[in-house]
Amino acid sequence: MSDGSPGHDNTTAHDYTATEMMTVTASRALTNGTTCFVGIGLPSEAANLARLTHAPDTVLIYESGTLQTRPDVLPLSIGDGELCDTALSTVSVPEMFRYWLQGGRVDVGFLGTAQIDRYANLNTTLIGDYREPKVRLPGGGGAPEIATNSREVFVMIKHSARAFVEEVDFITSLGFGRDGRARDDLHPETARHTGRGPTLVITDLCLMRPDPDTHELVVTSIHPGVTREQIIEATGWSVRFVNAPEATPEPSAHEVQVLRELKARTERHHAGHHEEASA
Amino acid sequence: MAEFLSLHEAIARHVHDGDIVALEGFTHLIPFAAGHEIIRQKRQNLTLIRMTPDLLYDQMIGMGCASKLIFSWGGNPGVGSLHRLRDAVEKHYPAKLEILEHSHAAMACAWEAGAAGLPLAVLRGYLGSDLPRVNQDIRHIDCPFTGERLAAIPANRPDVTVVHAQKADRAGNVLIEGIIGVQKEAVLAARRSVVTVEEVVDSLEATPNACVLPAWAISAIAVAPGGAAPSYTHGYYARRNDVYKQWDAIARDRDTFRQWMEDNVMTVEEGVSA
């Protein structure tokens, strides 16, 4: 499923990691021409891989105000100079959130998270009680409104029982609420401006999608070499599978090569102590 | 009208104990030199506002300058936690820190509302989030035209905003370029403002739609070359990602942190600290 251009090795990769499998699969979920509001970390890696392979016209937006950016290396922070240098335009942060996100210009919000639950609610705030947290996490950032103002949301997270919990300790960003119904009964004006929520969760083991009726996340596709037992063990609720889960296609040699080159470039760039000024 | 002052004088005159203070800059143009001067002058009991508290607020909180933090994302971007912030929230060290937590969209709107002289910001936000349960400042209003329930939060109105910018001209007008974040809004929302700049030039050579703060909207300007490092100044120097990565180990331990601050902030001259 790579771009199929001549000279690219579209044969299946022989050798790839589970994380590379996750990133390539996530990149394939972005169709060419999509306007994507990109979260930092894993989503940023996948979104840029999509742009460098099958989806060159994907529009990437970062919350720092950089519109339609084409970074050569992955940013360490959401506001790296690289994002501004390679953007079509850089707007203020209020404009970014008010006009471009709340205004309804974003097709896909692409988010990472610390915890996700059965109804795809996301927690990036804390583990434990709010006033006496066991672990304090960074907080919401752009995610609460990205999760509701984008037309749909993709979530990327490594599979583990600590991350996939029955119910999140804190709903930072709405999936489908504690009963799965939170998006059903909105005021018509609010509903008109609110997206479908998480439609796809990409992990290093499988793909999950919300059940059309209950909105509970169910496994729809299993990555090569992964067993159902592994997924069950790494999920904190009694996870369900669709009747006949698909087998996720393996990455192509080209996709793995482009991803590795991107990461190597990024590593070299961020290791430099005396980089040239961004101009 | 903007007065050119030394950084020491600008902070001494405009940042007081107990003030509501915002040091803004969205990853870019974070006013480290000015923040370090606030630490050296041992300001106390500050309410700190900032969308993305990063290393600078970790340092200010760890040195005991703050009693309250209003923010929307507190971390070391791409690296991990802010250990001094966490220590203050979780263990009340070196002092108890009250936190008031928002989303970026809400904070950005609160800055805009502050600049516009409005009492509140309105947004289609916090839908289904637990944040309104833990932050009394997140409330709701009904739209008088459609009946839609919208989120409302108070405007940000700090006593003083501190930002860093590329340059000022000799009259004290300031040009900000690159990722401009909420700098303009944060300055216009504040009662007083201090702007540090890389340099003073004869002409800003600003294009018609450039982000310019007129001299008459600024209280004080201090020249602080390198004043945003280890964050960056577009067109001048790049972000020191290595410093951001190293900070994790420094801030993890209370004593290591104290010693680092002693060596790199407390005992150095203004404007030349790391």
TrEMBL record, chain A:
Tagged with keyword Transferase: yes
Domain of life, source organism: Bacteria
Protein name (record): Glutaconate CoA-transferase subunit B
GO molecular function terms listed in the Swiss-Prot or TrEMBL record: CoA-transferase activity
InterPro entries: CoA_trans_fam_I, NagB/RpiA_transferase-like
UniProt KW keywords: Transferase
Pfam families per record: CoA_trans
Entry keyword annotation includes Cytoplasm: no
From TrEMBL, chain B:
UniProt-listed Gene3D superfamilies: 3.30.30.40, Glutaconate Coenzyme A-transferase
Gene Ontology MF terms in the entry: CoA-transferase activity
S-adenosyl-L-methionine keyword on record: no
Annotated InterPro entries: CoA_trans_fam_I, NagB/RpiA_transferase-like
Pfam families noted in UniProt: CoA_trans
The UniProt record lists the keyword Secreted: no
Keywords assigned: Transferase
Protein name: Glutaconate CoA-transferase subunit A
Organism ancestry: Bacteria, Pseudomonadati, Pseudomonadota, Gammaproteobacteria, Oceanospirillales
